[in-house]
Write a structure and sequence with these properties.
single chain, alpha/beta, two-stranded antiparallel ribbon
C-alpha cells in the first residue's frame, strides 16, 4: 500500500494544474499529438568547458527505468527515447551496472535512426585480478560498445569512484587512443565530495556526475566552485531524490511566482532550480513513462530563475509540511522496478 504522501506523479500532474494549463502542456493529449503541436523553441544549451561543445541541459537517465527483463514489454522505453530526441534531448546516461539499460539504449537509438545524434555518458565499475590489472575494464568497455552499438563513447566515468586511482589512469589511456572522448568520475553521496574535489583539482577530469537537488546542496560548499575553476562539466544525477521530492507536494499546484517564469509542474520546478546554477552542465532525470518525459523536457525551454528566484523557490519548498521527512522514505515510493538488477533497500510492490 502507498502512504498518504506517496501519490504517484501521474496523479500529481493531473491535479497540480488547471485543465487549461494541462492542455497547454499536452498532459491530456497523446505524446505524438503533443510533439506535433509544439511551436519552434530554442533549447537551453551549455558548453562542455574543456572543448566548448554544446549539449542540452536536460538529459535522460536510465537507472532502474530502462532495466527491462528480457522478453518483457519495453515499448514505453522506446517511446521515451523517441520523444526525448524529438523534443531536443541528446544526452543519455547509462551504465553496465544498470542491468539491461545499455541494451535498451543501444537497440532503440539504432532502431530509431538517431544514434549519431545521441551523446552517451557511460560509466565503468571494475577492479582487477591484481594491482594494475586493466583486463576487467577492457572487458567491460568492449561489452558497453557492443550493447550501445558504437565504437567510441562520448563520456566514460569511474562509477561511484570505484578503484578510481587505477581506473583513472586507464581512462586517460583510452582517451588518448580515441576510444572515449571525455573522462570523469561519479558519486551520489556527499560524503565523497571532498575526494571528488581533490580529483577535480588535479586538472585531469572532463566531467563529474554528482547529486545536487533543492534539498541536497552540499555540492555548493566547494565542489561546484572547484569544477567551474578547473573547467569540469557537471552532470546531475537523481534530481528528484528518487521520486521522493514529489511526496510533500502531492496534489498541490506550483506557486504562482514560479508560473510567472513559465514553470507549470513540480518536475519543472525541481529541474529548473538545478540547471539555473551556472556550474551545472546537464541533469539526467530518469523515467520510463512518455508523459513524464514530456514534462521533464519542458524544462529544456523558457526562462531560468535568477539568484533571487532560486532562493525563493528553495525557501518555499523547504517550508512545506513533510519535506523534513522526504529522505526518510524508501526510494521510489509506491513503486518497484522489476528488472534483472535487485537493490537492497525496501520497496513497495510495483504499481
Amino acid at each position: 500500500m502507498m502512504s498518504e504522501y506517496a501519490t504517484k506523479r501521474r496523479t500529481l500532474l493531473a491535479g497540480a494544474a488547471t485543465t487549461a494549463a494541462a492542455s497547454m502542456l499536452g498532459l491530456s493529449l497523446s505524446p505524438r499529438r503533443v510533439a506535433a503541436q509544439q511551436p519552434a523553441r530554442t533549447p537551453i544549451l551549455r558548453p562542455i568547458p574543456k572543448t566548448g561543445e554544446m549539449i542540452p541541459v536536460i538529459g535522460l537517465g536510465t537507472f532502474e527505468t530502462f532495466d527491462i527483463r528480457p522478453g518483457d514489454p519495453r515499448g514505453d522505453v522506446r517511446e521515451v527515447i523517441r520523444l526525448f530526441h524529438e523534443n531536443g534531448g541528446r544526452v543519455i546516461d547509462t551504465s553496465p551496472l544498470y542491468g539491461m539499460a545499455e541494451t535498451c539504449v543501444g537497440d532503440f537509438i539504432t532502431d530509431l535512426g538517431i544514434a549519431d545524434d545521441i551523446f552517451i555518458t557511460n560509466k565503468t565499475w571494475t577492479t582487477g585480478d591484481y594491482l594494475s590489472d586493466n583486463s576487467h575494464s577492457e572487458r567491460q568497455l568492449r561489452q558497453s560498445r557492443e550493447r550501445l552499438w558504437r565504437n567510441q563513447l562520448d563520456v566514460l566515468q569511474v562509477h561511484s569512484l570505484e578503484n578510481h586511482d587505477q581506473v583513472r589512469h586507464w581512462l586517460a589511456q583510452k582517451k588518448a587512443e580515441g576510444a572515449v572522448r571525455y573522462v570523469g568520475i561519479t558519486q551520489w553521496s556527499p560524503e565523497y565530495y571532498d575526494t571528488m574535489e581533490r580529483l577535480v583539482n588535479t586538472g585531469t577530469l572532463d566531467f563529474v556526475q554528482i547529486a545536487y537537488t533543492i534539498i541536497t546542496r552540499a555540492a555548493e560548499q566547494r565542489l561546484l566552485d572547484a569544477c567551474a575553476a578547473n573547467g569540469v562539466a557537471v552532470q546531475i544525477n537523481i534530481p528528484f531524490e528518487k521520486a521522493r521530492l514529489f511526496t510533500p507536494v502531492a496534489r498541490q499546484p506550483v506557486p504562482d511566482f514560479a508560473r510567472e517564469i513559465g514553470i507549470e509542474t513540480w518536475a519543472q520546478y525541481f529541474l529548473k532550480w538545478i540547471i539555473s546554477h551556472p556550474a551545472v552542465t546537464n541533469v539526467i532525470p530518469a523515467t520510463s513513462r512518455p508523459q513524464h518525459l514530456l514534462d521533464n523536457m519542458a524544462a529544456l525551454y523558457g526562462d531560468l530563475p535568477d539568484r533571487a528566484m532560486r532562493k525563493r523557490m528553495a525557501d518555499h519548498y523547504t517550508s512545506l509540511t513533510g519535506v523534513a521527512e522526504v529522505l526518510k522514505q524508501p526510494p521510489y515510493p509506491g513503486k518497484k522496478y522489476g528488472g534483472v538488477v535487485t537493490w537492497p533497500f525496501p520497496q513497495a510492490q510495483r504499481t
